[in-house]
Amino acid sequence: MTIRIGGGQGFYGDGVGPVADLLDTGLNYLVCEALAELTLAILQKDRQRDEALGFTRDLPVYLQAAMPHIVDGRTKFITNAGGINPVAAGRAAAATLKAAGATGVKVATVVGDDVRGRGDELRLPADALFANAYLGARPIVEALDAGATVVVTGRVADASLFAAPLIHEFGWGWDDWDRLAAGVTVGHLLECSGQVTGGNYSGPWWENPDPLRIAFPLAECEPDGSAVITKPEVAGGMVTFDTVREQLLYEVHDPSQYFNPDVTADFTALSVDDLGENRVRISGARGGPPPDTYKGLVCTPAGWAGEARLAYPWPDAEAKARAALAFIKGRARASGVPVEEWCEEYFGVNAYGGPTVDLSGDHEPSEVIGRLAWRTADAESAGRVSQGTGVLGLSGPPTISSTGRGRDGRPTQLLAVDAFPVDRKLVDSQVRVDIEEV
Amino acid sequence: MARIQLRDLCGARSGDKGDISDLSLFADDPAAYEAIKAEVTAERVKEHFGVLVKGRVERFEAPNVLALKFVMYEALGGGAPRSLRSDNLGKTHAASLLRMYIDVPDDVAAGARRRRAPVVR
Fold first, then answer.
1. Domain-wise residue ranges, chain B
2. Whole-angstrom Cα distance, residue A368 to residue A364?
């Protein structure tokens, strides 16, 4: 028995077009991974405005794309689109199914990752805006065992969304570390959508076939834990040893100990074999017991930010941009605005590379954009710095240019997100799977 | 020995976890892997990134995919939603590492196969 799983989303705001190509190949599961650390902070800002929000609002779009496949039972749908409000997301999923006329579809909502209410026990900061534990595959497996066709979760570890259906289908034990590690490996390879099929590729990315239509990936998974990573033939991009290994190590820290709530996987034990024709086989996964605690993520307010971008052409572009940024900083100091941190960047010089850029020699860039960002304790102060920038138009260095439309310079709130360990028992006692039949 | 820039020898990809920048460096054959393993140490990477990386740098090896992993702490200005940097996710750190020059055996330099993208104006 081969189980086919597709990676239908890699972040909140990803494309939905490639999902149709994936579904046409015949999937048992479509998994949509919507949450990065940054995403939770974005969702927090949503929920501050409206208590009914806090989930990724493109959930209905992905559901609709998969609707015919879900309704006739060909494909099950798993997503962590619940973000910091899975209950609201579950309702949105059920409403989307009802609106499409679906009947007899079981929608499961996994709740319990929210630990903000346990702040005293976990010694969380009093001003925590959200605090969540990364759940593993267990509640999703429970939902699938109960017959759910659509599973909506909050903060579940990305790879666990994909491991869960394999554990459910193949009946892998919770102490079968090598198989669990295999499931996490498949999940990790699929969770960033186009990043394993030629997107963000540091090799010859310009040779991607059909670059306007980079495929989303799928895995053909076997009961022994081996899998072939591939893509729909009709879509563009590529799956090679090189694209797969770039994703394999993406954001994993120590590759010999990739921590997941259910298993610690050793990615250095894997065999990665390029079979040609956009098929790469993964086998030999090794795993061991998971860490004693769940990983938590807590978000706290961290002040406000403003920024200005000022562009200048040759000649003396860098000198002009530096003078403009010094002007803004000087004006802010003179007017007594309490700025806690400045960040100066010069695009065209070394904005990204910083000290890795060799600035010896006399090359003069043809243009430089100076970017100044600042952090203040409150929004009003951040706005006061911005007010000092307009005068540069006529009273600053010569030949200033706009950098285009789209930035109004309004202050934005900064949020700190910090990882912390969470007692498993505390979380497990509050995790619940709610099932609603549409 | 020959001096070579990593852009001609390796691929690289980077990402974030909190204030940590996580960077992978990929070689294309075992000889090149041994060369980068000898040359691209955690200490050199820490020095290369200077003020961009305020914390320590750890290195891990993944010989099965001919890769080195660098985990750089306090490297993103406080973490994505807190950072004032344009590149608050550290996606460009991979490119910045490829700027490094290292000394490699002549056959490794001769076998370097990373190509440059054509510019069509």
1. 2-77+89-110
2. 10
What is the tens place of the pLDDT at every residue in B51-88? Answer: 999 999 999 999 999 999 999 999 999 999 999 999 99
Backbone angles phi, psi at A329, to 5 degrees: -65, -40
The Cα–Cα gap between B91 and A199 comes to: 13
Q: Give the bridge partners for A278, in sequence order.
A: none
- List, as ranges, residues 21-80 from B with C-beta within 8 Å of A: 22, 24, 26, 48-52, 58, 60-67, 69, 71, 77-80
Regarding an ipTM greater than 0.90, the answer is yes
Tell me the one-letter amino acid at A153.
T
A282 touches A230 (CB < 8 A): no
Determine contact, residues A407/A111, Cβ cutoff 8 Å.
no
Tell me if A296 sits within 8 A of A115, measured CB to CB.
yes
Interface mutation vs chain A, best among B10, B69, B82, most A CBs within 10 Å? B82
CATH of domain A301-417: 3.30.70
Q: Where are the alpha helices (DSSP H) in A6-54?
A: 17-24, 37-49
The CA-to-CA distance between both ends of chain A, in Å, stands at 30
Which residue is listed with tokens 């005293």? Answer: A120
- Give me the total of CB pairs closer than 8 Å, taking one residue from chain A and one from chain B: 149
Q: Where are the domains of chain A?
A: 3-291, 301-417
* Amino acid in the structure at residue B88: N
| Domain B2-77+89-110: assigned CATH number | 3.30.70
What pTM, to 2 d.p., does this model score? 0.95
